[in-house]
Amino acid sequence: MAKALLVYYSGTGNTAIAAKFLQKHLMERGYDVDLYFAQKPYWLLPDLSRYDLLGFGYPIHAFNTPLNFLKFLKKFPRGHQPYFIFRVSGEPFRPNCCSSHPIYRILKRKGYQYRLDKHFLMPYDIVFRYKDSLAKQMYLYLDALTEAYAEKITRGIKEKPHNPLDVLLWSILLRIEWIAGPVNCKLVHVKKKKCLRCDGCIRGCPTHALYRNKKGVIRVHPSCNICMHCVMNCPSDAFIFGFLNPWKVVGNYPYEKLVANPGIDAHYVNPKTKGYFRHFRKYFLAQDAFLKEYGVPIPK
């Protein structure tokens, strides 16, 4: 039985969901699949020689790979296996197409063989909250699309990275976001009267950036990459998140409850959609074609 390892980073959980869906669908196709959340220390990594295929997943930040994930990959052991990429963002816009460019370069130097890259949509965890109907639609599509992607991976299809020069330059320019965490962390504070002192934010921080100082006050280390995990999961909305506070989204999306509720429509983006989300119609039409190509039913 072929073995695969999915190495991923996830802030608020969307990329983790994609990894679990991919694990499920690859296993349905005969793979033995392990998941590994990208973190230090590196000795926690399993023996890579045991795996025939690797997958790397991340959330797109400002049309780029999160800096902490790139730092992790730069110290990743050398190898020779083929690999694929899966990445998640809240919008389908063209600048996202070059977000994996630094990953190709890092892994090529380490000897790994590129195969595929796939972009998935899931709701925003910053800027504004998506409607329940759209969150349900995206979740159902993610399940279906990861199944089609697993089928494509299983068939051994190989593609060349697509990095249009104009988009790549734009992506490189927006890497200024990489310094946003260290700058914004100095402005973050927690309202004492609202804080429950549960320390869930500290335990759950993917980059271990939160801590209590000697006075017992929650502070943020510059390793913060503004993934918004602490803000979304705070049970009392106690965080004032610096200059990003007006854009914070509080409360995780209850995907399973949304799917289980027949009263919530899963066709928010449709031919009649107007406003900002009309731009998403092209994405969903393209994904419908992708699903048909690999024999996966379109979500209803």
> Radius of gyration, Cα only, in angstroms?
19 Å
Q: In CATH, what is the homologous superfamily of the largest domain?
A: Flavodoxin domain
How far from one another are the termini? 34 Å
**What's the SSE pattern?**
EHEEHEHEHHHEHEEHEHH
The CATH topology of the largest domain is given as Rossmann fold
* Gross CATH architecture of the largest domain: 3-Layer(aba) Sandwich
Determine the number of helices (DSSP H or I, runs of at least 4 residues): 10
Which sequence of strands runs across the widest sheet? 2-1-3-4-5
Q: How does the helix and strand content classify structurally?
A: alpha/beta
Largest sheet: 5 strands, parallel
CATH class of the largest domain: Alpha Beta
For the residues shown, what is the average pLDDT?
94
Estimate the helix proportion, in percent: 25-40%
Q: Oligomeric status of the shown chains?
A: single chain
Shape: globular
Q: Please mark out the parts with pLDDT under 50 across 5 or more consecutive residues, or reply none.
A: none
Strand content: 15-25%
Number of individual domains: 2
Count the beta strands: 9
Can you offer a commentary on this structure?
It is a single chain. With 300 residues, the chain is an alpha/beta fold. It has helices at residues 14-28, 67-74, 101-109, 132-154, 165-173, 180-184, 200-204, 229-233, 255-260, 281-293; strands spanning 3-8, 32-37, 53-59, 82-89, 113-121, 188-190, 210-212, 218-220, 239-241. It folds into two domains: 3-173 and 278-293, Rossmann fold; 180-247, Alpha-Beta Plaits. The chain has ten helices and nine strands. Strand 3, helix 2 and strand 4 form a beta-alpha-beta unit. The longest helix is centred in the middle third of the chain and has 23 residues, at 132-154. It is globular and about 55 Å long.
